[in-house]
Design goal:
One of its GO terms (cellular component) is cytosol. Its EC number is 3.1.3.18. The chain folds into two domains: 148 residues, Rossmann fold (3-Layer(aba) Sandwich); 69 residues, Orthogonal Bundle (DNA polymerase, domain 1). Helices cover 41% and strands 12% of the residues. It contains nine helices and eight strands. α8 links the parallel β6 and β7. It starts with 9 loop residues before the first strand and ends in a 6-residue tail after the last helix.
Length: 233
């Protein structure tokens, strides 16, 4: 086990692409929004590559049909599209989404070992809390920090520093687990150790290029790493 992991007392998990495969519902909402605006739908692969910076940026990328937002987008159009997206997403929040394998088992094992657990996401509170409730995570998670909880979100370190303060620990005792460069960059800025997951949504990039402290292919490997227990726990 890396020495930086031996002092871990709390773990912050990203939500989308880490605990929850949410891309199908986001894809549905994006396409319903585009169709309502008289535009052509986009593929699941495109939407998956646009996830990670909050719904405002996702909507702008969809309108731009590109990862790079078109600076010529009219503010009125963006506002209209955002309203439509929120409406469609709220109605399909967990229609197609699902937890990744071993999520519940890993969280239960970590919690039983005395770890404090948090979700740190760039998703808005109005969508995050219903998902946490719907997928049965409320009893396992001690703290949920959303994209609108603080003025700044990942890759800013503020959400992680907020977690550390809430748990009354040092940021070096808080482990960030995520699938995106935003997660790893936030951890580095907070001086927290990090684990990058190879599945999920990282704009089509290899998470190893972000230089997390450790790269894992499955969440089940986390309990084996931190608790020295079989990965099937």
């Amino acid at each position: 086990m890396p020495s930086s992991f031996r002092q871990i007392r709390a773990i912050a998990f990203d939500l989308d692409g880490t605990l929850l495969h949410s891309a199908p519902d986001l894809h549905y909402a994006v396409n319903q929004m585009l169709i309502e605006l008289g535009r052509e739908p986009v593929s699941l692969g495109q939407v998956t590559g646009w996830i990670g910076n909050g719904i405002e940026v996702l909507v702008q990328r969809a309108l731009s049909r590109s990862f790079n937002v078109d600076t010529r987008l009219e503010p009125e159009l963006v506002e209209q599209a955002l309203g439509l997206f929120k409406l469609f997403y709220a109605n399909a929040l967990h229609r197609f989404s699902s937890l990744y394998p071993d999520v519940e088992a890993v969280l239960m094992a970590l919690k039983a070992a005395g770890m404090k657990l948090a979700i740190v996401t760039n998703k808005a509170t109005e969508f995050t809390l219903p998902l946490v409730q719907q997928f049965g995570l409320s009893g396992l998670i001690d703290l949920v920090v959303c994209g609108d909880t603080l003025p700044q979100k990942k890759p800013s370190p503020d959400q992680l520093l907020y977690c550390a303060e809430h748990f009354d620990i040092s940021a070096t005792e808080l482990l960030m687990v995520g699938d995106s460069r935003n997660d790893i960059q936030a951890a580095k800025a907070a001086l927290s150790p990090s684990i990058g997951l190879t599945y999920g949504y990282n704009y089509g990039e290899d998470i190893a290029l972000c230089n997390p402290d450790r790269v894992l292919n499955q969440l089940a490997e986390l309990s084996a790493l931190l608790l020295s227990v079989p990965e099937s726990v």
